[in-house]
UniProtKB/TrEMBL annotation:
InterPro entries: Homeodomain-like_sf (IPR009057), InsJ-like_HTH (IPR055247), IS150/IS1296_orfA-like (IPR052057), Trp_repressor/repl_initiator (IPR010921), WH-like_DNA-bd_sf (IPR036388). It comes from Variovorax robiniae. This is Helix-turn-helix domain-containing protein. Residues 64-113 form the Insertion element IS150 protein InsJ-like helix-turn-helix domain. SUPFAM superfamilies: Homeodomain-like, TrpR-like. Pfam families: HTH_28. Belongs to the IS150/IS1296 orfA family. Residues 116-139 are annotated as: Disordered.
Length: 176
């Protein structure tokens, strides 16, 4: 992984902001990565020169992670956009938070959770004698996952029915 100086970053971002070319042309002219330049431009727009300054590795609190994820959901932001707005150094870190939250809920965003999970298998297993929980004892996350699954199945079936209808209309009658 190539490290860039703050001066290199700022020169490339300012060249792009002045309209001296598109992202790819500026990245090539300044010998920087296209994705890196795109991240720097977004960070610079949101935070100025401080947005592209070298940052130390940082551990984020649960409340901050939830704030980022809620803003992404409410405003329809991508991980890259949310990272730029909130000053998170790596957008793939935000993607990891979203993945963990979707699969395991807010508890998975707690510090140390990942260490505990690597000792066990990725998917928690139920004891064999424990069957399906009654409806009133299922967690909100489980119910939302099931609802999402049912909605996807329903949409798939609707699409399949629509395709069958289109095919039956477009097939010419034999013998004419």
């Amino acid at each position: 992984m190539t490290k860039y100086t703050e001066k290199q970053k700022l020169e490339a971002v300012e060249a792009y902001e002045r309209g001296q070319g598109g992202l790819r042309a500026i990245a090539q002219a300044h010998a920087v990565g296209f994705d890196a330049l795109r991240s720097w431009v977004a960070a610079h727009r949101n935070h100025g020169a401080a947005g592209i300054a070298a940052k130390m590795r940082k551990n984020y609190e649960l409340e901050f992670k939830l704030l980022v994820l809620n803003r992404m959901r409410d405003d329809g932001l991508s991980c890259r956009q949310a990272a730029a707005i909130f000053g998170v150094r790596r957008h793939n870190q935000v993607a990891e938070w979203r993945r963990l939250f979707t699969l395991h809920g807010a508890a998975a965003l707690q510090p140390g959770w990942k260490v505990q999970q690597t000792k066990m298998s990725r998917t928690p297993r139920r004891p064999k004698d424990q069957g399906v929980l009654p409806e009133d004892q299922r967690s909100r996350q489980e119910l939302l996952r099931e609802l999402q699954q049912l909605r996807m199945e329903n949409a798939y079936l609707k699409k399949a029915q629509a395709l069958v209808r289109v095919k039956t209309r477009s097939v010419p009658a034999k013998g004419r």
